[in-house]
Amino acid sequence: MLTTTIIAGFTLGLFGSLHCVGMCGPLALALPAPHAKRNKQIIASVIYNTGRVATYSMLGLLFGMIGKGFSMVGFQQWFSVIAGSIMLITTILYFGFQQSYQPQWFQNYTWKVQGFIASALHQNGKAFFVGMANGLLPCGMVYAAVAGALVSSSVLSSTVFMTSFGFATMPAMLLLMLFGSGISIHMRVKLRKLTPYVMMLVAALLILRGMNLGIPYVSPHFQTTASGAVHCH
After folding, report:
1. Which of 68, 49, 76 is nearest to 165 (CA)?
2. 215, β-bridge pairs
3. I need a labelling partner for 84 at 20 to 30 A (CA). Which of 47, 123, 190, 207 fits?
């Protein structure tokens, strides 16, 4: 079962890495100083991306526990449909009509994370923490991954899913940080345009999963904890 989870998380991460190159390019390119030696650039890039993966793993653990709670009360099926529907509607409104709404507390949170990153970028030895903070910035692809983690079958599965997602984004980000000058802004914009299609695909899969159609891997039958109760005679 974990093999399927790893493949699913890794696949989403591969698609997500294209979004990362488009959206996180300026931040990633600001970390390894251009004048630094190649080995120092590689070390800084690996440490930075390891920090991102660490954050994704912790998010998987956190939202896995939340999803487990929904599963225990028999609400996970409907939660999957609701999460997929919200993601689909939000993606259409934001990318199709350029409409979005962020509450003030969320904007304040974003500014604080950005402020920490801006401060840490000017300090040596902070690459890991910059990476961790970057994993906390608002990101459509991370939202999609978190939605998948929420409806995973277990806390372990959720954590593995998010960790696989993070590792799959590393190759593209490492290449960007080491050879970023060869990727034009025009190309990054094109890569960024793939994001809504990937998010809508994930949303559709979440809705299908919650419909309990009995399709292996895509829409398996949900089993609530109540069905496994022991009856005493």
Report:
1. 49
2. 219
3. 190
